[in-house]
Structures are given as C-alpha cells and as structure tokens.
Specification:
By secondary structure, the protein is mainly β. The chain has a single domain, classed as Purple Acid Phosphatase, chain A, domain 2, CATH 3.60.21. The radius of gyration is 14 Å and the shape is globular.
Length: 153
C-alpha cells in the first residue's frame, strides 16, 4: 500500500500539524492556492510534490506551475486542478482514477461514474468557521483508493 498526501489552500502557511500528518507519505499533491514557494519547499522535505497554481498564486515563483496536471502514481492517473468549476459540465479526463481540487475550502469526497472527486479542504489560515483539513489517499496493490480527510488542530 502507498499513501499519498493531498493538501490545498495553504495561502502561505505550512502548519506543523500538516507536516506531522503528511510524515511518511510517498508523494504529496498540492491543489493550488499555495501562497508562497516556502510552503512547497517544506512539503518537499517530506516527499516529492506535484502542485498546480491556484487563483492566489501569482508572481515569478508561480510561473513554474501549471493550472492543471495529470500525475501518474503507480498505475493510477490523478488529475489535479484548483477550482473544480473549471471542468464545467465536462467529465473527468479519460482514464483518470481521481480528480483532485481545492478552492472551496470545504473538504469533499465523492465518486461519480467510478472516478473519485476529492477536495482536501483548506490547510491554511482559517476562513469563516470552516475546519482546517487535508487528506490522504491509501492506494492498495489492486489500485483501490481509500480517501481519508484529516482535521488539523
């Protein structure tokens, strides 16, 4: 089994609780609104990172990141974008096992037509009264994905 960390909407804050929760993962996906390059530097000390740009990610450092990415981990293709609304009414790209997004600051796990849709929520500064969360994906040898949302703090 491999464990993948999924984080979003850090807005320049990498919480120690997030680092602890992600310790031991094989890979980390950041679904945008990173906020500052130092967040990714901190995550890279834990595991390799795949990241997309969110709407707050501007400036020179953010040019290195695309708006969408498809990442192959093991036998699974994971499609990453910041705002799920960018997909519109289009289905997930062909052959992906999961669509990973952020933006809403609300954790969400659902399956549509056999594709996992995961929003890990926000691990950055608290907004409104929403919980601070991130997620992990446990992937077994058969490719079965088990998403887990973790509340921080």
């Amino acid at each position: 089994m491999i464990r993948i960390g999924v984080i979003s909407d850090t807005h320049g804050l990498l919480r120690p609780e997030a680092e602890q929760c992600l310790a031991g993962v094989a890979h980390i996906i950041h679904a945008g609104d990173i906020g500052a390059e130092h967040v990714l530097d901190g995550l890279r000390r834990i595991a390799p990172v795949s990241a997309v740009r969110g709407n707050v990610d501007t400036g020179d450092w953010a040019r290195n990141y695309r708006d969408t990415e498809t990442v192959r981990l093991g036998r699974l293709d994971l499609y990453i974008l910041h705002d799920l609304n960018e997909l519109g009414s289009k289905p997930a790209p062909n052959g992906v096992a999961a669509v990973i997004c952020g933006h809403s600051h609300r954790a969400s796990v659902k399956s549509i037509d056999g594709v996992l849709y995961l929003n890990p929520g926000s691990a950055g500064p608290r907004r409104f009264r929403l919980p601070i969360t991130l997620a992990t994906l446990d992937v077994d040898e058969s490719g079965e994905i088990r998403p887990i949302v973790h509340a921080l703090g």
